[in-house]
Amino acid sequence: GGYTVLINTWKRNSLLKQSVAHYASCIGTDAIHVVWSESDPPSEDLKMYLRKIVEAKSQSAHKPNLRFDLNEEDNLNNRFKPIKDLRTEAIFSVDDDVIVPCKTLDFASTVWQSASNTMVGFVPRMHWLDEEVQYTSSMFFSLFIVFK
């Protein structure tokens, strides 16, 4: 059971720390994979800090596994590469600046389990056209379900 949280990050360690801390606190989180797309690997200090955060924030006896998926090239498509050592069928892919509440994520996991051949996800950034172009992510997100 549970799900893997795949966090895409790039040169925003403070956001990564917040994101890892939040998703480590979600009961359904089995593993956290950080998609690292910088030429330099993450520092040992950062990795140690994140491991301690995962240990401290985890709400269950099973502590989420923390992994870094290293990419030398900065490319937004790195998040779509095959994931090594994946332990779950469910994957939640998210950017480091997006925090989805644990209850919402757990609900999405339950929805997905009821029809695991489908995709379930969120659109955390919304934009729309009317009199003026508006772009927002604060306090808004949409739920969408894609059927195969």
TrEMBL record:
The keyword Transferase applies. Gene3D superfamilies: Spore Coat Polysaccharide Biosynthesis Protein SpsA, Chain A (3.90.550.10). GO terms for cellular component: membrane. Transmembrane segments: none annotated. Residues 3-137 form the Glycosyl transferase domain. GO terms for molecular function: glycosyltransferase activity. Pfam families: Glyco_transf_64. InterPro entries: GT64 (IPR053318), GT64_dom (IPR015338), Nucleotide-diphossugar_trans (IPR029044). The keyword Disulfide bond applies. Keywords: Disulfide bond, Transferase. Belongs to the glycosyltransferase 64 family. PANTHER family: GLYCOSYLINOSITOL PHOSPHORYLCERAMIDE MANNOSYL TRANSFERASE 1. This is Glycosyl transferase 64 domain-containing protein. It comes from Nymphaea colorata.
